[in-house]
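Retro notes (design track)

What went well: tokenization of the new backbones is finally stable.
What didn't: we kept losing track of which sequence belonged to which structure.
Fix going forward: every design gets posted as structure first, then sequence, in one message. First example under the new rule, 173 residues:
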């Protein structure tokens, strides 16, 4: 069974972890702006785009430049993580066609997780810094503080992947 293989188990766990990180990203960015109807604007004061433009990572119509940059980084992260999950599936399905040894695959894990962590931190720096110290921003059920702390949690998870993969790569060298 494939779970008995340590390399395959590690790859599957890493893919699941990165999938969870992406779900956290979608939840934290999509929670407040997924509906941009008249009542939403009236009660919450945030202009939003109506579906289908606000379904995955919504972009409020009156947002500043930093929000657009954050959304672009999030789309890039989704693309990179989807590509990496496909790479992981290819390693599981076609183990003989991937010519890398275990050390090279772990090194790729370290590089990938480092890139994801840096992109998350850059995106959340723009996300958190774009409010210029505004403290009276409130949403019913989900506030911007909640989104920010979800972002911090996902960055910590991604950083832990970097550390674990880096230690594994160092140990195998």
């Amino acid at each position: 069974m494939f779970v008995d293989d340590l390399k395959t188990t590690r790859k599957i766990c890493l893919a699941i972890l990165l999938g969870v990180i992406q779900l956290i990203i979608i939840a934290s960015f999509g929670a407040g702006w997924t509906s941009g109807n008249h009542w939403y604007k009236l009660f919450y004061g945030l202009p939003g785009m109506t579906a289908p433009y606000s379904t995955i990572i919504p972009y409020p119509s009156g947002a500043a430049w930093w929000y657009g940059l954050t959304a672009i980084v999030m789309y890039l992260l989704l693309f990179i993580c989807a590509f990496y999950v496909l790479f992981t599936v290819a390693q599981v399905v076609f183990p003989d066609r991937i010519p890398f040894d275990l050390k090279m695959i772990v090194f790729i894990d370290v590089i990938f997780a480092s890139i994801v962590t840096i992109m998350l931190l850059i995106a959340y720096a723009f996300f958190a810094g774009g409010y210029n110290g505004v403290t009276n921003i409130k949403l019913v059920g989900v506030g911007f503080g909640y989104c920010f702390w979800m972002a911090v949690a996902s960055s910590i998870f991604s950083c832990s992947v970097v550390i674990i993969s880096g230690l594994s790569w160092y140990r195998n060298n």
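Added context from the reviewer: Residues 30-41, 45-58, 132-146 have pLDDT under 50 and may be disordered.
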